[in-house]
Q: What sequence folds into this?
């Protein structure tokens, strides 16, 4: 079994073990056109070529100055890649394509409602927009290299434009997923120290124009509570000239971008030549404590890694129409909607809305209309569309050559529907295991060279050497059938540099567990702890079981149990709270909250609703629990720690393990009776 501290909860603990599956071979038509079809590439990335093998990725970029040191380990585990090199990420994603493909669509944006036409933005138009917005940011908002700028933008082209404009100036962007609450956004603004917030007044979802400006006000308020004032809020209007919110504009703070932009028409901003190690962006994610972690990604290493993996694993060619149907507010969107695809000069599709509105044929209609060749989504979406519209793909005349899945384990039968029905048996399926922290793919298959195996992500990516360790740091051998903690033995260019402002926590969370010598500057002594349980088959393919820490992956969204619990504790009546994962047919996992009340308080539906409302306010609707159980007491250790493992066992009708050491073992039967009776 995977390791977990006795008091915490582990998704891996409730994972379903499915049997080994047969291989599927890639279609010959795919292999014939693949970017990586010569097995020699595996030799070029063999372990004895590390770290120089990654030069191949970095050489896909334009450098202002070439680097002198590929990997500097002197401040382990703060790895530095391509030291001495200078480049600009915006130049690499935009300017360098102007000579060869100025009139090719860089992006196609598919808005809601469905009768609105898709909007194509050529590389030249993108260049113009990015320059003008960068001029506005610099001259109006005072943004300069190294400043942090927070975005709370939905899926609109203004988001990549804002990212690239910051990158052009050397400023560090921090996009907060649009579905997060204003409070969550404010906390991230304060943590990153952003003086500027960029947002939009509203956006469409399920046919409704949603007021988003309200969240900007809440975010500024929440940031102020953390002692941080936001000086400037730049608000794009979803329909320029027509305000979609009834929230007042705050004098001196709030400004409509479409009112300001005419003053910057025709302006050009030279791309700032940045050191390879300069941070490009922050991406907040959940972890073991209530405070979100700002994962800091570099310019040179990150861009090299996402460009290389986009080329070989996404098999992106410039003339593809590539669609990663994720949200740019997550790392998947940063790496594989914006930076990787644009760096390779392809056409990247983004869409507003949801896969199921107005009906579960929407994605396939878009694919047909735009001639999408390469498609990328998450198991949750696949499961949902398989349930709601199992035959919808057959109604549309699109042809995918390549499909990706990301973010959660995919069940073999769901994989087969994706392959057979969505891919019409003609596309390769690439399962990609990775994380916000890793920047790009870690475990996956080279689509023309390594066969697919449903339910397994595959072996380590090029230049990545995963290993599974048991609790005491012994290697769990491939083919042993045993699960353990998956680690990466070596650094790679896409690895995040640190947790913004918390270097000690960075070291402790990711490297302390299996570190062999804290003083060592040899990377061999610093395995990276991914935080997932996994099994390695005899063929070297990994199957990911889920998180081993206090993180629950709901529909591919990573939620921290501590964040959920602190939100619940803001409700007056609540004394204690525990968030646990339960298996969910559609979303992989769902969250159930267990709460106990302060003395003298009475259980009621209003208290349950209060917990849900608090979670929505503090984190966002995505974190809404499926159940709030009010229990008389929590199972606890003698030292008073809540045994989430035991509660998760009850909620999942699974083994609760040894409870003899609990301070109050009798409560287990009471809770079981209460919960299982109602389920
Ligand atoms: O548990 C793993 C799961 O998602 C976690 C990372 O979440 P996040 O940082 O939000 O990034 C998601 C997109 C990369 C991992 O620790 N996960 C990610 N990809 C897979 C996966 N689990 C199984 N199979 C995958 N392909």
A:
């Amino acid at each position: 079994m995977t390791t977990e501290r006795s008091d915490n909860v582990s998704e891996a603990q409730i994972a379903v073990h499915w049997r080994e599956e047969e291989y599927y071979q890639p279609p010959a038509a795919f292999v014939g056109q693949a970017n990586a079809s010569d097995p020699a590439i595996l030799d070029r990335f063999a372990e004895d070529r590390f770290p120089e093998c990654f030069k191949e990725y970095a050489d896909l970029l334009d450098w202002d100055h070439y680097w002198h040191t590929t990997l500097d380990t002197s401040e382990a585990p703060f790895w530095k890649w391509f030291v001495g090199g200078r480049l600009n990420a915006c130049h690499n994603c935009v300017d360098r394509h102007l000579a060869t493909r100025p009139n090719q669509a860089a992006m196609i944006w598919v808005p809601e409602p469905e009768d609105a036409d898709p909007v194509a933005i050529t590389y030249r138009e993108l260049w113009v927009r990015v320059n003008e917005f960068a001029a506005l940011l610099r001259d109006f908002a005072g943004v300069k290299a190294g400043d942090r700028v927070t975005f709370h933008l939905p899926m609109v082209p203004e988001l990549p434009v804002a990212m690239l404009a910051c990158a052009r100036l050397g400023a560090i962007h921090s996009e907060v997923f649009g579905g997060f609450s204003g409070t969550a956004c404010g906390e991230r603004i304060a943590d990153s120290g952003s003086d500027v917030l960029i947002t939009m007044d509203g956006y469409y979802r399920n046919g409704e124009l949603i007021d988003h400006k309200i969240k900007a006000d809440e975010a500024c308020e929440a940031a102020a509570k953390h002692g941080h004032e936001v000086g400037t809020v730049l608000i794009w209007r979803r329909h320029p000239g027509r305000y979609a919110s009834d929230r007042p504009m705050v004098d001196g703070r709030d400004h409509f971008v479409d009112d300001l932009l005419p003053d910057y028409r025709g302006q050009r901003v030279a791309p700032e030549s940045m050191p390879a190690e300069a941070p490009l962006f922050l991406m907040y994610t959940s972890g073991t404590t209530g405070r979100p972690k700002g994962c800091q990604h570099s310019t040179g290493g990150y861009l090299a890694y996402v460009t290389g993996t986009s080329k070989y694993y996404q098999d992106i060619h410039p003339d593809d129409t590539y669609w990663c149907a994720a949200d740019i507010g997550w790392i998947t969107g940063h790496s594989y909607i914006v930076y990787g695809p644009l760096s390779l000069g392809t056409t990247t599709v983004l869409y507003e809305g949801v896969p199921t509105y107005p009906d579960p044929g929407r994605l396939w209609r878009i694919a047909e209309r735009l001639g999408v060749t390469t498609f990328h989504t998450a198991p949750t979406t696949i499961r949902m569309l398989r349930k709601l519209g199992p035959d919808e793909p057959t109604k549309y005349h699109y042809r995918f050559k390549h499909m990706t899945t990301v973010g959660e384990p995919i069940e073999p039968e769901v994989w087969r529907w994706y392959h057979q029905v969505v891919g019409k048996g003609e596309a390769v399926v690439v399962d990609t295991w990775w994380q916000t922290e890793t920047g790009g793919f870690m475990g996956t298959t080279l689509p023309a060279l390594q066969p697919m195996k449903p339910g397994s992500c595959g072996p380590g990516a090029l230049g990545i050497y995963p290993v599974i360790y048991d609790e005491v740091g012994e290697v769990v051998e491939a083919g042993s059938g045993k699960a353990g903690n998956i680690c990466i033995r070596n650094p790679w260019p896409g690895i995040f540099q640190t947790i913004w402002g918390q270097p000690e926590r960075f070291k402790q969370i990711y490297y302390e567990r299996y570190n062999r010598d804290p003083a060592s500057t040899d990377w061999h002594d610093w395995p990276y702890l991914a935080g997932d349980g996994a099994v390695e088959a005899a063929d070297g393919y990994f199957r990911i079981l889920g998180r081993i820490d206090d993180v629950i992956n709901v529909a591919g969204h990573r939620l921290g149990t501590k964040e959920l619990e602190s939100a619940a504790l803001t409700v007056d009546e609540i004394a204690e709270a525990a968030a646990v994962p339960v298996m969910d047919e559609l979303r992989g996992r769902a969250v159930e909250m267990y709460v106990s009340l302060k003395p003298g308080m009475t259980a009621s539906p209003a208290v349950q609703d209060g917990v849900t409302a608090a979670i929505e306010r503090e984190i966002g609707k995505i974190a809404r629990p499926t159940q709030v159980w009010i229990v008389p007491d929590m199972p606890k250790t003698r030292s008073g720690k809540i045994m989430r493992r035991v509660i998760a066992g009850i909620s999942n009708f699974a083994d609760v393990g040894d409870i003899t050491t609990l301070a109050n073992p009798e409560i287990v039967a009471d809770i079981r009776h209460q919960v299982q009776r109602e389920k």
Remarks:
- The longest strand covers residues 574-584.
- The longest helix spans residues 123-139.
- Residues 1-6 have pLDDT under 50 and may be disordered.
- The CA atoms of residues 150 and 174 lie 5 Å apart.
